[in-house]
């Protein structure tokens, strides 16, 4: 009898938590709608790079919308602000400083705005919004250049400060911000949208407290987090117990040809929690790739793939910081995944995208086929700036150009969508052409870009813009995967690389043709120049010769796979536009060598063949050096190896280079002897 009563009580409590969780979700959904419909800049009102949430006084997000805004920020710890301010009714606090907030904010373009919600004179919770502010000053239009070497070049920083005090605007704070950005009126429009959403949240939460009582609402906030944590543990407990290691790369650091290496060891403890140990990842770089996570034990940008896996496997879950409670991080100091002041961090999400694929690799080792393989791993956010023209100028986001996502053991990858940035919407052509001096010549999928497999990767995006103003500046940030492409697994092939070219007006009629723009961020195009950007495809899973021939034929009919690629890669014959089953059967009887592990593509495979042992030895050696010289020391070791001759580099050559560089940097004798071993 007692057991029956306890079970009924537990069920009733669970129903109550679910009711409140949905009420909280309704609040954040309305907040998101206010921001979306009231904002002014293209990147917020069209692309939806914004976020809203409800936050406990301790700094945990307990409610976050599902279908609006930037989902990867869900769960970031906010105690650096929620517990660091003397809150009063009507206050609104604003900040964009990654270092003053200990990794809560991650680059200067993200403007975080908080408002306390008081009920009966006591703090109940806080409402939060963020917008990606298109421009916060700095060297480049849009504030981000991949070659920025320190945060001072990236615009104005505001440590947490009250923009509104007891409901009154602090005009001095706003004027400081407005005077240091290129589009103050548009930014103010976005800011007022945020403030309106915060006020709406305050109204809705006070009504909930009036209806159900303040204490019950407060209890439900924490119960919602606890329920999400319990559901997360149930999902993560299914990951086979053990440790799984994987390595990913940026192909370079934008100032040299030395790749940037990121390593993770995923450990499933068997109790519904996991540890992600990033030890061995490269030191922070003198480029805008650094991710300032503040040494947090839980951070969403370094756990995205695991969070997505949990949400996929638990239909009843409410997304909130309860998921991250189960995912512990180990982050090396002053590294590209845990940068120290004053490292540049403008394109920190490029690093988060690489970490996303990194974790997919570790999960693939643990559970082959149950998660996707690597996606294109690239998001080139493109701006058109006429800000040099003065007050009438603008900085407008043209489009975030991405690639395809990776396949899994169950389905094809998604074309034109990179899963880590799937929340971003495209800018409609009509909107862009009305707001910027451009004509969109093409926006579609790139044929033959997919990673082949039994389940193929998604196709990348191809985007062409014609520049229609002589003073327009094109900013293209986030370029990568122009050499190292998305990897496939279990016999599936790697995807294709990304790139960008420009065709000047006279080149179309001459022998010069298009020119490679390379990895420049800020590009001054000529009047009438056509810029073409494309993202690579996602990796494939499984043997391409096991793919259903009808599916290959459908891709050929859609113009996405050429008949030649269908024949050579998939073993599918297309004759007179139709599937030739007899010829296909003959093609598929050809003897082949099909790898069953990972296909990293030719460029990365060659890099690892030549430098693999050296990379491991250098990574183990770098922590023995002072933080300030680690990246320099790493580059110097590689240079000495290259000057000594072509690789692969053997252990004795690597040891000699480590010892020579260590001695030049004044490393102690004991450390030199250890490096030489």
Provide the structure class.
alpha+beta
User: Tell me, what's the shape?
Assistant: globular
* N/C terminus separation: 70 Å
Q: Nearest-angstrom radius of gyration?
A: 26 Å
Mean pLDDT, to the nearest integer, reads 92
Number of helices: 16
**Approximate strand percentage:** 15-25%
Binned, the helix content reads 25-40%
Weakly predicted, low-confidence segments: 5-9
Overall tally of structural domains: 3
Main beta sheet strand tally, sense and closure = 7 strands, antiparallel
Characteristic terms for this protein:
677 residues; alpha+beta; 5-stranded antiparallel beta sheet; 16 helices; 24 strands; 18% strand; globular
Describe this structure in words.
By secondary structure, this protein is α+β, with helices and mostly antiparallel strands. It has 3 domains: 2-231, no CATH class; 369-543 and 594-599, no CATH class; 601-676. It is built from 16 helices and 24 strands. The protein has helices at 2-38, 42-45, 79-82, 171-178, 184-212, 214-236, 304-313, 348-366, 429-435, 549-557, 563-570, 581-587, 602-621, 630-644, 651-664, 669-676, and strands spanning 50-55, 61-63, 92-95, 110-119, 122-132, 161-165, 168-169, 242-250, 260-268, 274-277, 327-330, 379-385, 395-402, 438-445, 461-467, 473-477, 488-489, 499-503, 515-516, 522-523, 530-534, 574-575, 578-579, 598-599. The strands form 6 sheets. Strands 2-1-5-4-3-6-7 form a 7-stranded antiparallel sheet. Helix 1 (2-38) runs antiparallel to helix 5, helix 1 (2-38) packs across helix 6 (214-236) and helix 14 (630-644) packs across helix 15. The longest helix has 37 residues, at 2-38. It starts with a helix and ends with a helix. The relative contact order is 0.09.
